[in-house]
């Protein structure tokens, strides 16, 4: 288990790990190429873009920020409270926009350059969002009396009500693959595959093509590896799903890790960027393997980190 690693990385190097201070706190200029990718971070009422090359264990170099108070000029007053617990910050469309969800019952699309909200909606206990063809998004909604579902919205309007709803208990992750023209979703111990039906019409639907049982329960995050594989983080482990064989296997680089709230894997470089809770469900650090280092962010309750595409 690596629960203790998050502490040893940032507090003291205890006997639980053999990493030395020099290995953990490498100069960040040695870790990244000149054209390092930026990271998007969400937690509390904030979305941030940071430059990892200029960050270290006690400092995150923030180059862009959006917070819930910005909704006071952009959205109805009731929405400021719907973005006080951000839990998704997925960059899309060549890193020009960010898909946002919040467990405080909201989802939105942010335009980075304009620093402006382009779409927003009520989404109970929202935990993740994904962009779909034909100007639509799907929101994974977790445990809430009005949630436990996947809901699809038309984003050509400023706001809206769902045009599709499909029940999925404790929905936490959604991922669209152009290669297979399929939507993948996780909730509790379920793994679902959907195809888009009548998608070119005004009455589209999600057709459940297959449902599989995950090896363990408590699914948290669903992210892409490549055209045939994806990662699923769960309470008791991280698994790789193979689309061709429709099988789950333990993800060896994180074999000892549990309860990761977000995980991003670059198959070309081998780098893994993740968040591991320190307090309940949140952390004050962003973590990396290959190379191993951490970035501190103590002023918000960090939930997820994403790496620019």
Number of domains: 1
CATH class: Mainly Beta
Uncertain ranges? 1-35
Task: Write the CATH fold name.
Answer: Lipocalin
Question: In order across it, which strands form the biggest sheet?
Answer: 3-2-1-24
Number of strands: 24
Share of residues in strands = over 45%
Description:
There is one protein chain. It is built from 3 helices and 24 strands. The relative contact order is 0.14. The protein has a single domain, classed as Lipocalin (Beta Barrel), CATH 2.40.128.630. The chain has a 4-stranded antiparallel β-sheet with strand order 3-2-1-24, with no helix packed on it. The protein is mainly β.
Provide a short characterization of the protein structure.
This protein has 309 residues and is mainly beta. It contains three helices and 24 strands. It has a single domain, classed as Lipocalin.
For this entry, give a set of tags:
disordered N terminus, Lipocalin
Write the layout of secondary structure elements.
Layout: H1 5-10, H2 21-24, E1 39-43, E2 46-50, E3 62-67, H3 71-74, E4 86-92, E5 97-102, E6 106-111, E7 116-122, E8 126-132, E9 136-141, E10 149-154, E11 164-167, E12 171-177, E13 182-187, E14 190-197, E15 205-213, E16 219-224, E17 229-234, E18 237-242, E19 247-250, E20 262-265, E21 272-275, E22 285-289, E23 293-296, E24 302-307
Antiparallel strand pairs: 1-2, 1-24, 2-3, 4-5, 5-6, 6-7, 8-9, 9-10, 10-11, 12-13, 13-14, 14-15, 16-17, 17-18, 18-19, 20-21, 21-22, 22-23
């Amino acid at each position: 288990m690596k629960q203790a690693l998050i502490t040893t990385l940032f507090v003291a190097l205890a006997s639980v790990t053999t990493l030395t201070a020099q290995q953990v706190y490498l100069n960040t200029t040695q870790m990244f190429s000149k054209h390092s990718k930026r990271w998007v971070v969400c937690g509390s009422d904030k979305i941030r873009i940071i430059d990892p090359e200029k960050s270290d264990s006690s400092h995150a170099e923030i180059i862009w920020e959006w917070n819930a108070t910005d909704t006071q000029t952009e959205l109805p007053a009731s929405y400021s409270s719907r973005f006080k617990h951000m839990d998704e910050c997925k960059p899309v469309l060549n890193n020009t926009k960010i898909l946002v969800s919040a467990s405080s019952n909201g989802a939105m699309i942010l335009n980075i350059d304009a620093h402006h909200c382009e779409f927003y909606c009520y989404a109970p206990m929202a935990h993740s969002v994904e962009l779909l063809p034909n100007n639509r998004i799907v929101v994974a909604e977790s445990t809430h009396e009005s949630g436990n579902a996947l809901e699809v919205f038309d984003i050509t309007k400023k706001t809206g009500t769902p045009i599709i709803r499909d029940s999925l208990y404790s929905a936490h992750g959604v991922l669209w693959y152009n290669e297979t023209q399929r939507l993948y979703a996780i909730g509790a111990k379920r793994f679902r595959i959907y195809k888009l039906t009548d998608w070119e019409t005004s009455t589209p639907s999600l057709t459940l093509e297959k449902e599989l049982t995950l090896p363990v329960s408590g699914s948290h995050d669903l992210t892409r590896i490549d055209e045939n594989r994806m990662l699923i983080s769960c309470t008791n482990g991280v698994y790789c799903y193979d689309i061709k064989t429709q099988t789950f296997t333990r993800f060896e680089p994180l074999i000892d890790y549990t309860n990761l709230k977000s995980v991003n894997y670059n198959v070309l470089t081998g780098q893994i960027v993740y968040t591991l809770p320190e307090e309940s469900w949140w952390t004050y650090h962003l973590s990396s393997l290959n190379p191993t280092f951490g970035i501190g962010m103590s002023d918000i309750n960090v939930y997820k980190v994403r790496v620019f595409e």
